[in-house]
Amino acid sequence: MKAKLIDGNKIAAEIRAEVAERTAALSECGVTPGLGVVLVGEDPASRVYVGMKTRACEEAGILTRDIKPSENISQAELLTIIDELNDDPQIHGILVQLPLPEHLDETEVTERIHPLKDVDGFHPISQGRVAQGDQSAYRSATPAGVQELIKRTGVETSGAHVVIVGRSNIVGLPMSLIMLQKEAGANATVTVAHSRTKNLAEVTRLGEILIVAVGRPEMITGEMVREGAVVIDVGVNRVEDLTTDKGYRLVGDVAFDEAADRASWITPVPGGVGPMTISMLLKNTVAAAERATHLNALEQPSLPR
Ligand code: NAP
Fold first, then answer.
1. Residue 237 alpha carbon to ligand 1 centre in Å
2. Of 235 and 295, the one with more pLDDT
3. Does 30-117 carry CATH code 3.40.50.10860?
4. Which residues are annotated as catalytic?
5. Ligand 1 proximity of 277 Cβ (cutoff 6 Å)
6. Which CATH superfamily is domain 141-276 in?
7. CA-CA distances (angstroms) from residue 232 to 56, 158, 163?
């Protein structure tokens, strides 16, 4: 293997330590950052994710208020829960774990969260403000985590050709907007590829930085990677593996071994992008608490209305 590993666990731990310092500073002012966490129903994967997020919050000094309505909750009842969290001064950020059961309208729920408490960064106001270059806007956690991984690895992004495979609202699209920003860790020339892209391998081979968020196990083969590229694999896929106790293992969207023979840096799966997502949620939550208490003058937003 030629590439060096980008250690997401290590970088995520650094960010959590920084968050813990900020929560300690808030605590000296008598403020505990608060995150309202809404988990509807019993979806096993969602329960695991929410458990990881609340544990990470506790470790960083962030108070969580867990609300776990049954999966039969009505849209109106769920909106009332959001309204109560919006009005609660002890709650600085709100997280609604997605996906919601089918009878609920995710878009309406997401848009009901007050933009100043939108620490997941999924509200159209947050996403629109990111697109307009507003540095105070909340960035969604996964693409923000990818940018942080790249920055802290010391990779120069200014003027670099970044190719992103995937254009979803939670990863690919906001990732492209972040890498276009006029700021350190961005200023890139960005190409976004998706399922209709012709000659995908030709496009991916242009990427000095290749970010893949597709949801297809090991779809990006070694020959699709430019020599010396920095490869960031956002994908998390379960593939059957009867040699393991669980009967499966996790792989990314990139064929790791082949890509690592050509890349200069590469993220593993697991242990790459995954740990960053939770750390960036914590970072957004502590920023929300600082804004609410006017501790962070730089982050005073022009938000919201
Ligand atoms: P998604 O909403 O399903 O979007 C997938 C994107 O990939 C779409 O834009 C799609 O194109 C594109 N695509 C699908 N097949 C393709 C192909 N053959 N060639 C080129 N592009 C193709 O998925 P997502 O939510 O962005 O998630 C992507 C992956 O990241 C998943 O594995 C997910 O589990 C993982 N993920 C990880 C984290 C984390 O914290 N580590 C967080 C979020 C997501 P179209 O738009 O044309 O359909």
1. 11
2. 235
3. yes
4. 53, 97, 120
5. yes
6. NAD(P)-binding Rossmann-like Domain (3.40.50.720)
7. 23, 17, 10
